[in-house]
């Protein structure tokens, strides 16, 4: 298995799915903490220049979440439910409140690569190819890459 | 729009989706109640011969649910999260605990047809065509049809 140091973002040709993968110099438990501890999560999620404010956070199976990303006066709300929070896997719903009809089903896997490294794999499933492709064209790649770069620095600094 | 008196169950040819539709002699509010009130829901969901026991039920956006369907000593558990419970639409996750890795994203719409009639439309989205087709072959059609027939009788009896 070769190392994935930049985020790989792929659209499935046959399913309305986006897949992402990236390796981190962290254990699965550290990555799980970075995704479930609200204070840690707010520090790295999203593109540079936006500040994340957690409005609601209950990171357990059956819980739910909401946060607002702000840049000056502009605010963008996101919310969803945690279907499953278990060692190695998080399954959650995801709605960007600017498009309240849209709901994605997201799955995150934390694959132990040994030697303190973990591969984060993420899958986002929606109910149309048009919606999936519009999301890919929206600039989500920048947010994902800048967010994971922040997480990488936090890991290197011992903050996770 | 013609009447849909039997349940229409369709597999989308291009998306890993099952769609269902059926008309009921009830208002959208009555159908919403039949899907959100745990005592009502337990009385109609699932095939004849199984008894539904609600284990957890919090039918609001961000809530979650779990129930067990029992026939003699055989028990089948199901659980999920309510992503959205709003007038006209419910969005929820769904896992059959016999296949704990599988998660469907379900959307229900209650379309007012006027004259006290409502079209229930339901969509179930999964992340593979194989999983979708196995679910279709599992006999879910019987459970859906027998369940909706029970709901129809409850509506006729004034129980909803």
From TrEMBL, chains A, B:
Residues 26-154 form the Activator of Hsp90 ATPase homologue 1/2-like C-terminal domain. Coiled coil: none annotated. It holds the Pfam family AHSA1. Gene3D superfamilies: 3.30.530.20. It comes from Actinomadura monticuli. This is SRPBCC family protein. Belongs to the AHA1 family. InterPro entries: ASHA1/2-like_C, START-like_dom_sf.
């Amino acid at each position: 298995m070769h190392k994935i140091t930049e985020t790989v973002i792929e659209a499935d040709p046959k399913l309305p799915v986006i897949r992402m993968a990236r390796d981190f110099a962290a254990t699965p438990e550290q990555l799980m903490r970075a995704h479930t501890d609200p204070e840690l999560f707010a520090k790295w999620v999203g593109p540079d220049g936006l500040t994340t404010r957690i409005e609601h956070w209950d990171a357990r199976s059956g819980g739910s979440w909401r946060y607002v990303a702000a840049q000056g006066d502009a605010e963008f709300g996101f919310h969803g439910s945690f279907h499953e929070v278990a060692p190695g896997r998080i399954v959650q719903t995801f709605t960007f409140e600017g498009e309240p009809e849209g709901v994605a089903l997201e799955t995150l896997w934390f694959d132990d690569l040994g030697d303190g490294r973990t591969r984060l794999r993420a899958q986002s499933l929606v109910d149309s190819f048009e919606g999936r492709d519009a999301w890919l064209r929206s600039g989500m790649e920048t947010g994902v890459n800048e967010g994971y770069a922040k997480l990488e620095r936090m890991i290197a600094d011992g903050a996770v």
